Amino acid sequence: MKRLAILDDYLRLALRSADWSVLEGQCRIDVIDRKLAVPDEAAEVLEPYHILCHLRERTPMPRALLERLPNLEFMTVTGKAHRTLDLRAATERGVVVSHVSSAVQGSNATPELAWGLILATARHIAYEDRGVREGAWQRTAGMLLDGKTLGLLGLGRVGQRMAAIGQAFGMRVVAWSPNLTDEAAAAFQVRRVDKDELFAQSDVLSIHVVLSERSRHLVGGRELALMKRDALLINTARGPIVDEAALVEALAQGRLGGAGLDVFETEPLPAGHPLTRLDNVVLTPHLGYATRETIAGFYQASVAGVRAYLAGAPVGVREE
């Protein structure tokens, strides 16, 4: 019988979000509900398993780990990419990698969280919440979004949703990305601007580009210096898109009004990280896609992917 591990089920939702019983008699299923240190701890824990089911990109799969998993033959990966998986190493070792998709991809989950961060940052909600609990009262004055400029770094599916909500708040929306055209932006009532203009004009700048070598540290010290002193930076995309050290410096020195961050260069965010000591930052633990509906869709797709593999017809296979 195959041994199957469901990785990184921090919220213990996997077994009640999908019908794993359809694999009964074919797989022995274990749930791993904690983060494994890679490669040593992960190699020791995962060595017996033939099948691994990933939730997004939580457990990295570098070559150094894959080479220590002699029994591994199949992995499901939820979402379009697993940027911390060495696909070439998996292919060389004969591991089948199935990128499973779902009818419930939570396309609105990330923009909804991004707007939660915008509102929390603009109105200092977390800071004032702590104040009320400590006996304080009205320590800050927030930013009115109506009439302000929302800047979108990226106008893909998520960016388009962000634009529509921003317009509902009465905001002027501008956008930039390397391949964005005036016509594509205008289709969503958005004005395309140059990159430097985006940073200079935005009262709220929200990041929605894909992480790649081209976009790594796309937002650095130079770009942050272009922003208004009371502007807000929101990142629900990927942590390494922003130069975190430069951001901490700008926030600590009051050269930026605040930030709402769901993603970080290192995740989980290390204890005592400088960001945790700043009052003008709202932090969430990579919750962008983490809704009950989205996670259930991922697990249901994973079950379907394992069934397809065991039937000899794996879906969404990628090789390198």
From TrEMBL:
D-isomer specific 2-hydroxyacid dehydrogenase NAD-binding domain residues: 116-288
InterPro entries named in the record: D-2-hydroxyacid_DH, D-isomer_2_OHA_DH_cat_dom, D-isomer_DH_CS, D-isomer_DH_NAD-bd, NAD(P)-bd_dom_sf
Keywords on record: NAD, Oxidoreductase
Name listed for the protein in its UniProt record: D-3-phosphoglycerate dehydrogenase
MF terms (GO), sorted A to Z: NAD binding; oxidoreductase activity, acting on the CH-OH group of donors, NAD or NADP as acceptor
Native source species: Pigmentiphaga kullae
UniProt cross-references to Gene3D superfamilies, sorted A to Z: NAD(P)-binding Rossmann-like Domain
Keyword hit for Cytoplasm: no
Similarity annotation: Belongs to the D-isomer specific 2-hydroxyacid dehydrogenase family.
Occurrences of domain D-isomer specific 2-hydroxyacid dehydrogenase catalytic (ranges): 18-314
Claim: Chloroplast is one of the keywords in the record: no
Lineage of the organism: Bacteria, Pseudomonadati, Pseudomonadota, Betaproteobacteria, Burkholderiales
